[in-house]
Design goal:
The complex is a heterodimer of chains A (309) and B (274). Chain A has helices spanning 7-21, 33-36, 39-44, 56-67, 79-84, 87-95, 124-130, 142-154, 200-212, 231-237, 256-264, 286-292, 297-308; strands spanning 4-6, 25-29, 49-51, 72-78, 102-106, 135-137, 159-163, 167-169, 184-187, 192-196, 218-222, 225-227, 243-251, 270-275. By secondary structure, chain A is of the alpha/beta class. Chain A has 2 domains: 4-169, Thiamin diphosphate (ThDP)-binding fold, Pyr/PP domains (Rossmann fold), CATH 3.40.50.970; 184-308, Rossmann fold. In chain A, the strands form 3 sheets. In chain A, strands 3-2-4-5-7-6-12 form a 7-stranded mixed sheet, sandwiched between helices. In chain A, strands 9-11-10-13-14 form a 5-stranded mixed sheet, sandwiched between helices. A two-stranded antiparallel ribbon of chain A has the order 1-8. In chain A, helix 1 (7-21) runs parallel beside helix 8 (142-154), helix 4 (56-67) runs parallel beside helix 6 (87-95) and helix 9 (200-212) packs across helix 13. Chain B is α/β, with parallel strands linked by helices. Chain B has a single domain (6-272), classed as Rossmann fold. Chain B has a 5-stranded parallel sheet with strand order 1-2-3-7-6, sandwiched between helices. Chain B has a two-stranded antiparallel sheet with strand order 4-5. Classes of the chains: A alpha/beta (309), B alpha/beta (274). The A-B interface holds A 26, 47-48, 50, 52-53, 55, 57-58, 60-71, 73, 88-89, 91-93, 96-98 and B 60, 106-108, 114-119, 121-122, 125-134, 136-137, 155-156, 159-160, 162-163, 166-167.
Chain lengths: 309, 274
């Protein structure tokens, strides 16, 4: 069993570390710094932290203004608010002029389980993918969070970074290179390729164990970089398989499944695991919701078997 | 900063108004009304108050001009062309395919444009970000943001007004082009915004009320703003929509209207006689 590490905490520490070295980095939050973990900047580099209060639209446009003075602003809120509440500001103030603003959406999917549908972003990736000039990244673990923070600082342009609030298994190594746009092979296999991101990558690894008992071998690929997405690399990683399964903690509309099927087309049969065009609800735990909405290793196994039958 | 020569500045405002007509052309819909109402303020900023030059467009110490009411871009384009940011021949090509001058300000297209605006309500926040960046870097430039009065209906404006007071950005100046009309008619008949100055004051801003077509009053207010420390300033400039074009003044239809050949000729004559 892989070691668990909290992604949002890893994120906050990674941003602080980067900010200590790079004076251009500033952070903004909309009264959620204790949850998004921008509080590491707030507590350690207070001059470079801007509390914008419960006013996400202003926060996002202020970040645009700060970027126009040469800063690298990281604007934080829950995924559901930064994308939803400030959509027009993201589009008009940041994406159209390709400004160097990093939008950090925390507590995505069902990870804020108790708070219910209003707090559970299930369509944020679809929205951000549709915006021209936007880069969309969903790190799979704490290691990739640290790598992604470095990578998006080096990349000049708007980025949406989707961070889970949960502890997740560490699946990647610091030594392995993270490149924006490149899908990463996590585990080799020959029958079916499973393209997953976020928590669904570890679900796919569990599905792999379950399928091995039935002599089925699946290849697990982590697609943390949803946009841009290297189409040739996606095709290469599908070589020789009889089918593809995608798995994401997001609506089936507009997310990873769509990104992969846009690339693969009709050449290989595809099945998708995701949220079936409906909102979430409250539950005692993240796991309760994942199970209720069919985001499980069993669901991946079922799709794999469908493709092989 | 330019020369405090009122006649010279009035002449620049006239050139801006003629430039607006040039950019609008004949039989093309365009935002005539709001461009004409703001022309005097724009002239005072570009030709008197602001530290800027096309020769040092990326100078970190330059003053910033943010046209939050981005639909009045024609006034800014005319001013930028007169300053030499680009050739005046661009004005006639405004809004044509591939043109340098887009329907709303876009920094990637047009030299001298600081940020993209057009979706109302965002410019003051962007300006606040620029002001905070300036404070962080210890620079003493100012950020001038021009808002429409109808635009004050956007809730985001008041988020920015609140935050600017909290952060004491005395390097941020909001200028309200208070022409009392919005796209569909008088503000009072749409959603009455009420007493704009009282609202800004209540939010902690230092406010000034002026006749936005009185050049002397405009430059006085811009100079007064420099003396204010510790709070942001708002200048409420009372203006006339369509100012200078006899048949368009206070006519809502010219918010985004077209001039036929005869009207165009008359408009040019009216402005030349201002």
């Amino acid at each position: 069993m892989a070691r668990l590490e909290c992604l949002r905490n890893a994120y906050g520490m990674a941003l602080l570390e980067a900010a200590k070295k790079n004076p251009r980095i500033v952070a903004l939050d909309a009264d959620l710094s204790g949850s998004t973990m921008s509080r590491y900047i707030k507590n350690n580099l207070p001059d470079r932290f801007f509390e914008m209060g419960i006013a996400e639209q202003n926060m996002v446009s202020v970040a645009a203004g700060l970027s126009l003075t040469g800063k690298i602003p990281f604007a934080h809120s829950f995924s559901v608010f930064i994308v939803g509440r400030a959509y027009d500001q993201i589009r008009q103030s940041i994406a159209v002029p390709k400004l160097n603003v990093k939008l950090v959406g925390s507590s995505y999917g069902f990870s804020d389980s108790a708070d219910g549908a209003t707090h559970q972003a299930i369509e944020d990736v679809a929205i951000m993918r549709a915006v021209p000039n936007m880069t969309v990244i969903v790190p799979v673990d704490a290691v990739e969070v640290r790598q992604a923070v470095k990578a998006i600082i080096e990349y000049e342009g708007p980025v949406y970074l989707r961070i889970s609030r949960s502890e997740m298994p560490v699946l990647t190594n610091e030594e392995d290179e993270f490149v924006i746009g490149k899908p990463r092979l996590i585990s080799e296999g020959k029958d079916i390729a499973v393209y997953a991101n976020g928590l669904m990558v570890s679900m796919a690894l569990k599905a792999k164990e379950m399928l091995e008992k039935k002599n089925v071998s699946i290849r697990v690929i982590n697609v943390s970089s949803l946009k841009p997405l290297d189409a040739e690399a996606v095709r290469q990683l599908a070589r020789g398989v009889k089918g593809i399964v995608t798995a994401e903690e997001h609506s089936l509309i507009g997310g990873l499944g769509c990104a992969i099927s846009d690339i693969i087309g009709d050449s290989i049969p595809i099945r998708k695991v995701g949220i079936a065009d409906r909102f979430g609800q409250s539950a005692p735990s993240h796991e309760d919701l994942l199970e209720h909405y069919g985001l499980t290793p069993e669901a991946i196994v079922e799709k794999v078997q469908e493709l092989l039958s | 900063m330019g020369n405090r020569d009122i006649v010279y500045l009035q002449e620049k405002a006239k050139i801006i108004r003629l430039g607006i007509l040039e950019a609008l052309g004949v039989n093309n819909k365009g935002h005539l009304g709001g461009s004409m109402s703001v022309a005097d303020v724009v002239a005072a900023l570009y030709f008197y108050k602001m530290n800027h030059s096309p020769d040092r467009m990326h100078d970190s110490d330059r003053d910033r001009f943010v046209l939050s009411k981005g639909h009045s871009a024609l006034a800014q384009y005319a001013a930028l062309a007169e300053c030499g940011y680009f050739s005046k021949s661009e004005l006639a090509k405004t809004k044509t395919l591939g043109a340098m001058l887009q329907g709303h300000p876009e920094r990637d297209y047009t030299p001298g444009i600081e940020c993209n605006t057009g979706s109302l309500g965002q410019g003051l926040s962007i300006g606040l970000g620029m002001a905070l960046g300036g404070k962080l870097d210890g620079r003493d430039y100012k950020v001038y943001v021009i808002l429409g009065d109808g635009e004050l209906g956007e809730g985001q404006v008041w988020e920015a007004v609140t935050a600017a007071n909290f952060y004491k950005t005395d390097n941020l100046v909001a200028i309200i082009d208070h022409n009392k009309l919005q796209a569909t008619g008088p503000i009072k008949e749409c959603i009455d915004i009420g007493n704009i100055g009282a609202k800004f004051s209540a939010f902690g801003w230092k406010t000034f009320e002026i006749d936005g077509h009185d050049m002397e009053a405009i430059v006085d207010a811009l100079d007064e703003v420099d003396k204010v420390k510790g709070v942001p300033c708002a200048i409420i400039a009372h203006t006339v929509k369509g100012k200078g074009v006899s048949f368009a003044e206070n006519v809502p239809g010219f918010h985004n209207g077209a001039l036929n050949a005869e009207q165009f000729k008359q408009a040019k004559l009216d402005i030349s006689n201002m």
